[in-house]
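About this split. The held-out portion is used to measure sequence recovery: a designer receives only the structure tokens and must propose an amino acid at every position. Recovery is the fraction of positions where the proposal matches the reference. Here is one held-out target exactly as it appears in the evaluation file.
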């Protein structure tokens, strides 16, 4: 288990923010580092009957019941076997029920990068058939495109509203 700690405050240089990047297949995504509670290796979860397909189940993390979401399934990507590189990123998400912890299963964690806010481009409008409201923006980082996720819209609205699990304790 890796506990994420902040250095030099919550943001890098003025006008930038720190983002934890992770991979799903060949694509790189990012979430605000301030939302990351911990990064842990893959471990089996307890399945909840009749939950949505991308909600794998729950884990008991130090007495808190944390829902676990498979990001490949959430994004309709091909399934992949869980390997020693597969990780669960525990994120603090604002949901209709308040702040909750959720775990997201990703292929691997890359690194923490500073993203200049002036360099973030809006998500492209791909028409009514493609929902991009959970993409906070796109940024070029070290020659690769990183999709910055609005984790509250991606997880908080949909999954938290569909679950009735107790709110995880912050701390």
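Reference sequence for scoring:
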């Amino acid at each position: 288990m890796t506990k994420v700690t902040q250095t030099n405050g919550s943001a890098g240089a003025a006008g930038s923010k720190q983002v934890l990047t992770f991979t799903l297949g060949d694509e790189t995504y990012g979430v605000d580092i301030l939302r990351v509670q911990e990064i842990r290796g893959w471990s089996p979860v307890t399945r909840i009957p009749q939950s949505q397909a991308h909600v794998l189940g729950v884990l008991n993390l130090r007495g808190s019941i944390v829902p676990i979401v498979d990001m490949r399934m959430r994004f309709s990507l091909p399934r992949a076997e869980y390997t020693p590189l597969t990780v669960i990123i525990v994120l603090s998400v604002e949901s209709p029920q308040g702040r909750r912890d959720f775990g997201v299963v990703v292929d691997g964690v890359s690194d923490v990068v500073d993203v200049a806010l002036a360099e973030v481009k809006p998500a492209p409008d791909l028409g009514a058939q493609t929902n991009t409201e959970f993409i906070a923006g796109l940024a070029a980082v070290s020659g690769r495109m990183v999709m910055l996720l609005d984790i509250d819209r991606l997880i908080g609205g949909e999954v938290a509203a569909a679950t009735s699990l107790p709110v995880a304790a912050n701390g």
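Annotator remark: The longest helix spans residues 151-156.
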